[in-house]
Amino acid sequence: MPDSVPSPAAPDQPHPALLLHAALESLPAQHPEIIELGELFQDAGHELALVGGPVRDALLKRPVHDLDFATSARPEQTIDLLAQWGDAHWDIGREFGTIGAQRHARGGRQAITVEVTTYRSDQYDPTSRKPQVQFGDQLDGDLSRRDFTVNSMALRVPDLTFVDPFGGLKDLAAQVLRTPVAPEQSFADDPLRMMRAARFVSQLGFAIEGSTRAAMTDMAGRISIVSAERVHDEFVKLLLGTHVREGLRALVDSTLADHILPELPALRLEIDEHHHHKDVYEHTLTVVDQAIALETDLAGAVPRPDLVLRLAALLHDIGKPPTRKFEAGGGVSFHHHELVGARMTRKRLQAMRFDKDTIKQVSRLVELHLRFHGYGSGEWTDSAVRRYVTDAGPLLERLHRLTRADCTTRNRRRAAALSASYDHLERRIAQIAAKEELAAIRPDLDGEQIMEILGIAPGPEVGAAYKFLLNVRMDEGPLGVDEATARLRAWWDTRGA
């Protein structure tokens, strides 16, 4: 994780004062409800402030969708006020002081959802990240319990007074992540904040300030008290960010990855003295970058961001460390690492609480990611091409991109040859697909026809016959009903004999 020294403003950001001026102009114009709600709470004798992410995003000139507020009002008072303002409200977060409300679309404007939380000054049990909720009376105290200074800024409404007790605006301009209180205290209170640091590195492209980074490393083991579901959520947001490589480095360099994804730091294999194999860790980060670059827009085959492709790129080589073998003569091999890696992928993603469909798709891509390398200069038969497409199934477009991303050689001639070879394979797939229903290959006879021709009832024999015809279809292409029937009868006679 690179060190970061705060500066007045990062090169690609204007001066903090200009950021603030632009935000103060844009927020009320985009969301006039901010002022309206502020006046409603003020008339009732309560403070209200826009806090956290919306303020940060407005300062960064990013779209502001979620409106989160903090207030001096207690939850029951907030409910009464939001009932006057919105068309619906809910108190599912009332225990934590949070009340939500929605106003339906009107006057050409979209529907809007807000959450208002009573000022808090929580106490934490060192053995748990769940706070003992205590309501507070001061906005500054509420802001001190937030994760980073860039999320500890507020905008009082309706007068639009900017509140920044911890220097968040300066850190935002310098693109630095720093805790508002001592990082040791912040991470002891809520260890998930360490994961959020890596996530914001990925999402915002920010760097982690030195003492904050050091505390993450010292306290990484505390992530174990956080539920796998909460870690999963932060990890997914990291993977879907725009600076994923840097976010992953933050996980590894802080040793957080040792606890949540140990297969990633394990890729930092010691390079043998003869350099017969590349740095698998750096190779993996490059593959992730290249896979992301091959994603397409929303109308494309693999729309960006694609979680399955990114996970497959990240995990495609995790089977290498346990399969590494030093051969006679100084060579290094990783035989069957794709099969071992697929099993490891399933186990890790299950532990990280990914859903069954995602686990199935990612592990299948890991298992198939080396299949193309048997293609050579085009020696595959049409049958082999059909099997490649059939085995990939709906993952074919992702497999195309993963395979291309896996080429990280610096040898331009070799890289060009691999690219040309894969171009050739894709053309062959397209040519065969133009003649056949390649994406859904089936035998020329279905189960009902098989039973009628052979005069048999449903059972294992039908499945065996179907598999036989499918293999013939793969090898030879479409046969037609008559030829398939003749082949089936001949196979059945042989089987009976």
UniProtKB/TrEMBL annotation:
The UniProt keyword set, sorted, is:
Magnesium, Metal-binding, Nucleotide-binding, Nucleotidyltransferase, Transferase, tRNA processing
The record's listing under PROSITE patterns reads: HD
Identify the CDD domains for this entry: HDc (cd00077), NT_ClassII-CCAase (cd05398)
**Names of required cofactors:** Mg(2+)
Which parts of the sequence belong to the HD domain? 280-402
Q: Which GO terms describe its biological process?
A: tRNA processing
The superkingdom of the source organism is Bacteria
In alphabetical order, the GO MF annotations are: metal ion binding; nucleotide binding; nucleotidyltransferase activity; tRNA binding
Q: Which InterPro entries match?
A: Bact_CCA-adding_enz_type3_sf, HD/PDEase_dom, HD_domain, HDIG_dom, NT_sf, PolA_pol_head_dom, PolyA_RNA-bd, tRNA_adenylyltransferase
Q: Which Pfam families match?
A: HD (PF01966), PolyA_pol (PF01743), PolyA_pol_RNAbd (PF12627)
Identification of the protein by name: Poly(A) polymerase
